[in-house]
Amino acid sequence: MDDREDNLFAIESLLRPVGRPVVRARSGDEALKTVMRGGIAVVVLDVVMPRMDGLEVLAYLKRLDHTRNLPVVLMTGLGRDDDLAARAYELGVSDFMFKPVDPWVVRTKVRALADLYVENQSLRAQLGALPRRGAEASAASLPGLIGAHVPRQPGGGAPHVRR
């Protein structure tokens, strides 16, 4: 998302080698509508936008259950601003970049974030299907799932959690 056609063209050209469709949005409202329609794996936003800036779009996306885990990359041409970056990370941005950007770095990060998001969504769908098999089957599979991820203490007990 960017309000400038030249920036949209540059980002689209930069991301084309990633091998995923690139959808343009020229405003925060347009970006939100596009994301709500689905099929988006990563959102790349410019920080400075008229009416609704990139931080506002980010905050809105992170408030909604179905977009909370969607990776968002913010870019700015304002120069290095650690306070702005800190606000973005507090809101849940996946990455924050300063223009001019290194095309290889952007492609690598966007590809990795998209792949992780798609895999995460697939795992969520698989987990969501577990209760439909019946409570007994789900309960029976839990010890195996837990045992695979939680180290056991000597003697077979679960580790203690300190609070």
From TrEMBL:
It comes from Streptomyces achmelvichensis. It comes from the Bacteria. This is Response regulator.
